[in-house]
Write the structure tokens for this entry.
Amino acid sequence: MSVITEMENKAEKEAVNIHCTRFYQIPDKPMFTGLIKISELLKLDQQEQLKVAEFSARTANSPEEGYQRAVESTRAKRFGRWLATGNNITPASILLSIRKEDVKNDNARCNEREANVTDSFGLRDADSVDLRIQPKCSIWIVDGQHRIRGIKELAEADQKKIADVNIAFTLLWDLDAVEEATQFVTINKTQKAVRTDLAERFVAKMYKLRGEASIMADPNSPIFKKAPWLTKAMDVLDTLIDPDRNTVWTDKVLLPNETRAKTMTVTQSAFTNSLETMLRPKLGPLANEDSYKTCDIVDIIDDYWNAIKENCPVPFEPRSEDHTPNDYALQQTVGVSSLHLLLTMLLNDFKGVLARDRETRTRQFTELLAVDGIQNIDHWDRTVEMEDGVKGGKWTMMGTNQKTFKVVSDKLYNEIRKTPAYKDLIEKTKGS
């Protein structure tokens, strides 16, 4: 027997056959539903065929980028224990996907069953099929990774107990990775909460790949409507926090699937949402892509924050016994949102006047921001004790909603308008 024949025979033995029902919700896009024994599911796992497209912030925009949240081990174990009692059922289907490349390469094959066969309920079984899944075929877990992880951990303790238990599944067929991810976001946004930061990452990626057409994936969803400016905001953030740039935002932003470190002061979503007024198409002062590339926007925001640091340095200092960055609202949601709204106002006032030279522009920002509302550290201090015994400074006690951000930015803007630096720049705009 040749080596090739032996390999083919081994592949046949390791192949998994699943009897299921094929159906269509839209033409030319079949789906399959049925039951799979846990023993077969575990076989697929042991052969390393079950895969999760998990997002990692550090592989963003790489071929390995995914869209899934990280598995929470505690949650998975809880499901395993629940199933192990033998008195519980899991009627909800796990959602799987076999992608285009495996269908194209015949790693997964749909075989028609004999027509006019009836099932045990006496119903015509004409659309029943057999799926033959080869060992080299990847099966992507779109929804249900915690259940599968819980089953796996339970099986490690007592596989015999659950080997013959059937799990309901629905299988997507012949989709590419983006189409598959679209299903994940749609399911989770309509049926249960999905982490906003992960959803935003996916929307930004899809917009890059498919442009305006991606918005039509769900034209009524606010998150898809954000795509044109959110995509740019995500690029700005990723560049701004790049360790090689060493900005005031390095290690300060909590990204998807990361554990919050003591240095982190704001979430990805809060930061990117704060950039909307600057980047919104047709309205934002930095929205014109011909005038402002991502690197230009990053430089402006970086210069602006260096000027803020110059005027109020303590919140930016490394963690010490006396304080942490999180003791101050300056780089938290209220600070970021209010100060970026303020930056939008200043950019609208000084179009064509702010210097392109970064050193000069930083100096201009520093002079503009030399006002009590920014310089007075007590305004940003969450720990300072006020006269009435209440802890928290002026800007920390107002909440974290859009109304608050507008109030804070307006107060700061009114202070700035009274400064000689602002008046000088306004005079320059009249002559430009």
